[in-house]
Amino acid sequence: MPALTLIVPGRLDTRTGGYGYDRRIVAGLRDRGWGVEVIGLADSFPFPSAEARSEAIRALASVPDGATVLIDGLALGVLPAEVEREAERLRITGLVHHPLAAEAGLDADAIATLERSERRALAAVRSVVVTSAATARSLAAYGVSADRVTVVEPGTDPAPVAHGGRTSEVALLCVATLTPRKGHELLLGALSSLAQRNWRLTCAGSVDRDPPTVERLRRQLDRSSIADRVEFVGDLDRPALDVCYDAADLFVLATLYEGYGMAVAEALARGVPIVSTATGAIEQLVNGGGSPAGVVLPPGDERQFGDALARVIGDADYRARLAEGARRARGRLPTWDAACDRMAAVLDASAGRA
After folding, report:
1. 36, 190, 229, 319: which has the fewest Cβ within 10 Å?
2. Please, what's the b/e burial string for 97-128 (b: 16 or more CB within 10 A of its CB; e: otherwise)?
3. How many CB atoms are closer than 10 A to CB 92?
4. How far apart are CA 153 and CA 259, in angstroms?
5. pTM for the complete prediction?
6. How many Å is the Cα radius of gyration of the chain?
7. Burial degree of 239 (CB within 10 A; 0-12, 13-18, 19+)
8. Crossing angle, helix 184-192 and helix 211-222, to 10 degrees?
């Protein structure tokens, strides 16, 4: 029976796209007869305490010689010396959802430190898995040759077509943890210019992981004229999140950087049109089928984002055409079966079984 050790910081049941990806890969490999052991590290990565780093060293040392190991990039990128030390006896593959230095809100010193550290760690592993072609291209700047990188896109579960808000208000939905990279401040700024339009926004995503960002957003709303039309509902379980998707007329995500864009794919699986940004796989997801399923804009441009929202919110016929494109996109979304098959092939090759 093939075996894998997955090393991931924090709890595997954390509700983010990256952890969701890891969970589905683990489940899919087990369904295929793999023995998968999950080793959870402290949740302080990618800025581990001395104690968390010592724990990671002990965890790696506990893995038997010759084992196939997959290390989530949130930990991998800041453990270069540890990975170098263990790479001689372990078959290590790195899983990069997106480069650590691409996280928004970092100062120049932190960016430079993370870039150096991740470059060194990636040089030490046998192979690298990324979740989008865009991330694969970005690793060229880290000295990772294309022949060492495999794209394993996330799957998307089939879902029924959303009913929408069923009122005169256009129901907007954003699904993203409240962190600087997800662009909530830009989204609220764009919507503030549309105070006279008929819309309501629900933001689903953790409000606990980055309290300073949440506080800034609440102050931004308090100073605006749209506070009574925006609701932060927090981190939702799957049934509650499904209810939000079903009630949405339009999915909005002003993200500054994505490795893939799993929430965008989830919205498309329900035939919900999109207004988002050209990062990760979002452009391909939204416009890759020839019939636009939404509007994709350059990241970081509040004026353009607001203009796009104004048109989609204000023009019901245009919104309906985009929704039709979203419904057509449902059939071309990647599957989890394909993702797990591809991951198994990568790991088999790393172990010398291919």
Report:
1. 36
2. bbbbbbbeebeeeeeebbbebbbbbbebbbbb
3. 25
4. 10
5. 0.93
6. 21
7. exposed
8. 10
Half-sphere exposure of 266 (CA within 13 A, CB side): 23
Instruction: Give the pLDDT band of residue 289 (cuts 50, 70, 90).
Output: confident
Token output for 228: 């009574």
Picking from 294, 344, 302, 339, the residue whose alpha carbon sits closest to that of residue 321 is 294
Q: For 297-310, b where at least 16 C-beta lie within 10 A, e where not — what string?
A: bebbebeebbbbbb
Dist. CA 187–CA 42, nearest whole Å: 32
Q: How far lies 140's CA from each of 66, 128, 135, 136, 272, in Å? A: 28, 12, 9, 7, 34
Tokens of 110: 């932190």
Mind giving me the DSSP string for 119-177? HHHHHHSSEEEESSHHHHHHGGGGT--GGGEEE-PPP----PPP----SSSEEEEEE--
Instruction: Summarize pLDDT for 120-173 with one digit per residue, the tens.
Output: 999 999 999 999 999 999 999 999 999 999 999 999 999 999 999 888 899 999
At 194-212, the pLDDT tens digits run 999 999 999 999 999 999 9
Residue type, 331: G
Structure-token pair, residue 244 = 């939000």
Residue in this structure with the two tokens 């309501």, named with its chain if needed: 200
Sign of the alpha-carbon torsion through 121, 123, 129, 132: positive
Q: Residue for token digits 């060229």?
A: 140
Residue with tokens 């953790």: 206
